[in-house]
Amino acid sequence: MDKKTRRQQSLMRYLEQNRYMSLDEIADRFSVTTQTARRDIQELELAGKVRRLHGGATIAFSVDPVTYRSRRIENADAKERIARHAVRRIRDGTTIFLDTGTTCEAVARELVNHKGLRVVTYSLRVANILSEGTDFTVAVPGGFVRPIDGGVFNQNTAGFIRLFKFEMAIISVSSIDLAGDICDDDQAEVEAVKAAMQQSEHTLLAVDSSKFGRRALVHLANLRDIDELVCEKLPDEPYRSMIENTGISFFTPDETPGHGMTAR
What we know:
GO molecular function, one term: DNA binding
Keywords: DNA-binding, Repressor, Transcription, Transcription regulation
Organism: Rhizobium puerariae
CATH topology of the largest domain: Rossmann fold
Protein name: DeoR/GlpR family DNA-binding transcription regulator
Distance between the termini: 55 Å
Number of strands: 15
């Protein structure tokens, strides 16, 4: 394997984890000129692996099947603990929006012991979990099914979600940065979740600690727009201080709050 191939493979691994890298960052990380970095991006774009964007590159697909399957295993115990803790806040008969993704699938599995829930989701995986052996009312939009994660999308998915009012929206994201911005990888998902947040009395963000410091392409909201955050543990600095400064209610499964945070 030649040097260029190794460099491009390493660049792809970085983008799979962080979603975006600027030309200057590529040049610095791999000790090449920006012209070489630009040629690497062009070659990877022709191969259908990346997209050029804003002076750098992003992954050409939101999540590939191999990465999504690995997410089911990655931090699986943390996601189960987050899910068990999150559902304690949900009463029988509650009207809920439930996001897509592996963390929300874990939440769905924990919800099946509840009674009389009314749930709107654009995830067929979540819908299947919730509709089998329960008395729940489950609504999903029509459209095309994304095979990677079972997400259902059409041009009016967000409009469908706006037909409903929710007592709680449970969401998850790919990235939380030091500004407190929460981001995801897919514009259609972001629009759907924004609609749900607008229609909900209360928004709970369920996310494992690996998402702090990761990059994602599309801005969804800020932590200040969220009512509470459930995570398996307090993140390391400087993210812990960032959370404290937002004043958001932060919960961990062992009910251990940080300074300036609350646990109920």
